[in-house]
């Protein structure tokens, strides 16, 4: 039975991860910006058991609040085995449509949110001599994804941060993995640019996602893949299979990946103009 933190756990991938962890008997601290929803999720998961879920309101963009949260989980449960720095937002639109607020929000939540989680969890795990940090990036952290470049930039940064930290943490008892899903059918695909000006892309992410990946993956299937990858201490957990194929193609031909992205941009411009 592990003590686990899941940020952004009130919805989608975070909720599915928390459900799978509670179902295997873990103690899970689920946090989210949405206090009502995270409380409901924790209550429902604990009712099913056999593990337990605790809810906390947390904005991952707030470094101090993240540090306090991770410290209090360690203090309450005696240890911190596994953390999922998972909270994230979708930001969509062509570069010329996006303001600095779009850029800053994507970086504050998707990148700094992970930085804050790592900065809070890593010293605790070093002191314990064990632990596993799992950061959620995206396939858009491995393959250039246009029409949402702040998102892509934040996710490439999370991949780099995670792989480099994995190298530093190796031999100190701390494991680090990075999760790179293709499109997963969650509310993220219908809540783009939260609190920010909307674009055709942000209003229709789900439609465009289906053009790129006709079969959206389910959060539950992804959670299974992720826990399997964590058990095997994989550096990169890429799913579904179509995502692994796109990643392989981009490694074989980085120029080809940019050409594929150009085709997607041209199709997007035709559809929205
Ligand atoms: P989701 O919208 O269903 O869930 C994200 C949760 O994060 C929400 O409950 C939201 O309230 C919370 N959140 C947002 N900002 C927050 C903040 N500042 N602090 C704390 N919580 C916050 O989305 P999801 O699809 O489950 O996404 C989870 C992660 O997976 C994200 O990092 C996302 O970028 C990544 N991802 C998603 C997909 C996809 O297609 N859905 C693909 C690749 C990667």
Order of strands in the sheet with most strands? 3-2-1-4-5-6-7
Overall, the morphology is globular
Full CATH superfamily name: NAD(P)-binding Rossmann-like Domain
How many individual helices? Answer: 10
Overall residue-averaged pLDDT value? 97
CATH architecture: 3-Layer(aba) Sandwich
Distance between the first and last residues' Cα: 54 Å
Bound molecules: nicotinamide-adenine-dinucleotide
- Structure classification: alpha/beta
Order of helices and strands: EHEHEHEHEHEHHHEHH
What's the main sheet like?
Answer: 7 strands, parallel
Strand coverage percent:
5-15%
Helix coverage percent of residues? 40-55%
CATH class: Alpha Beta
DSSP strand count:
7
Reported by name, the CATH topology is: Rossmann fold
3D architecture notes:
- With 273 residues, the protein is an alpha/beta fold.
- The protein has a single domain, classed as Rossmann fold (3-Layer(aba) Sandwich).
- The protein contains ten helices and seven strands.
- The chain has helices spanning 12-23, 35-48, 63-77, 100-128, 149-169, 200-203, 205-212, 219-231, 241-252, 254-272, and strands spanning 3-7, 27-32, 52-57, 82-85, 131-136, 174-181, 236-239.
- It has a seven-stranded parallel beta sheet with strand order 3-2-1-4-5-6-7, sandwiched between helices.
- Helix 1 (12-23) links the parallel strand 1 and strand 2 (27-32).
- Helix 4 (100-128) runs parallel beside helix 5 (149-169).
- The longest helix is centred in the middle third of the chain and has 29 residues, at 100-128.
- The radius of gyration is 18 Å and the shape is globular.
- The chain starts with a strand and ends with a helix.
- The model has no long low-confidence stretch (mean pLDDT 97).
- It holds the Pfam family adh_short.
- Keywords: Oxidoreductase.
